[in-house]
Design brief:
Layout (H helix, E strand, L loop, with lengths): L1 E7 L4 H12 L5 E6 L2 H13 L7 E6 L4 H17 L3 E8 L14 H22 L8 E5 L12 H21 L5 E5 L8 H5 L13 H13 L4 E2 L3 H9 L5 H11 L15
Parallel strand pairs: 1-2, 1-4, 2-3, 4-5, 5-6, 6-7
Helix pairs in contact: 1-2, 1-7, 3-4, 4-5
Bound molecules: NADP nicotinamide-adenine-dinucleotide phosphate.
């Protein structure tokens, strides 16, 4: 029986790091890497193959736009086609594809805000639904949320709301799947050095401020996921922030961040990027 690990958003940043680390220590025979950029997925695949990944007999790159119901249907069709060519089980799904938008809600392109919900919420939920029938006792779902999930944030309103959704949904799913022996873990990173800020700001901010290296964060997540930890926070500072969020007023936090944590967004004549 083929055993599969699926990683979404595997073409860069945290997702690419998941792909590299999982390839070195997995019981899966196949790794499926999903994102829109075929070239970047090829690069990640080549890097993994050069490091001689153990156990893996095939790394499949799947260039696919996962956004919205359309993306979920594309994914389901892909699974159905794979099933025809041979049965398989899914050991692990890392639901990592996602993006943010910086700036005041009324000042950022509405299309982009809605696409964020389509990817961060609809696609993530749809992929969970699609893979569960292929999972067995011991399988793991890792949903990538954010430290932004714990409170509403001004200048990051829709993003923080999408990540709150991911956290809430994932914890409930963990409760529902416990009896089936399927673990559901939510990774809640703070700032990580990836393309995230460049995309969220439409090019106005090239780097994530105070971004941490994804290597340690992903290693910590995989270690904790094995043990069935439901909410995974890497640093002491992030754990403290998440804990303190229980005592801070929601409106107060949103108002404070709106006033004092400005997030730049580059307005262009074309309006919105491909997101
Ligand atoms: N970096 C941070 O500070 C931070 C903090 C907390 C949480 N996160 C979360 O971590 C996750 C990964 O982000 P990152 O920081 O690694 O940013 P990133 O480097 O921009 O990676 C985002 C990934 O998502 C993929 N993606 C975007 N739209 C897609 C679509 N429609 N269909 C399929 N794949 C798509 C991108 O690939 P293509 O462009 O090739 O499609 C890319 O592989 C996101 O969910 C993000 O919200 C990041």
């Amino acid at each position: 029986m083929r055993n599969i690990t699926i990683i979404t958003g595997a073409s860069s940043g945290i997702g690419a790091e998941f792909a590299k680390q999982i390839s070195k220590n997995t019981e899966s025979s196949e790794l499926w890497l999903i994102a829109r950029s075929k070239d970047k997925l090829e690069d990640v695949k080549n890097e993994i193959e050069n490091e001689k990944a153990q156990n893996i007999s095939e790394i499949k790159i799947i260039p696919m736009n996962l956004s919205g119901k359309e993306g979920v249907n594309l994914f389901k069709t892909f699974l159905a086609t794979e099933k025809i060519s041979g049965g398989f089980e899914i050991n692990m799904l890392v639901n990592n594809a996602g993006f943010g938008t910086y700036g005041e809600f009324a000042e950022t392109p509405l299309d982009k805000e809605l696409s964020m919900i389509d990817l961060n919420c609809t696609a993530l939920t749809g992929l969970c639904g699609a893979v569960i029938p292929f999972m067995k006792k011991g399988s793991v779902i890792i949903n990538v949320s954010s430290l932004a999930a714990f409170l509403p944030l001004g200048n990051f309103a829709v993003y923080a709301a999408t990540k709150s959704y991911v956290l809430s949904f994932s914890v409930a799913l963990a409760a529902e799947l416990k009896n089936k022996g399927i673990k559901v873990c939510t990774l809640c990173p703070g700032s990580v050095s990836t393309d995230f800020a460049n995309i969220a700001s439409n090019g106005a901010r090239k780097e994530v401020l105070n971004g941490k290296n994804p290597v340690a964060i992903v290693a910590h997540c995989l270690n904790k996921a094995k043990k069935g930890k439901r909410i995974i926070l890497w640093s002491l500072k992030w754990k403290f922030t998440a804990f303190m969020s229980r005592f801070i007023g929601r409106y107060l936090c949103a108002r404070y961040t709106f006033k004092y944590n400005k997030r730049p967004y580059l307005k262009t004549q074309q309006g919105t990027s491909e997101y």
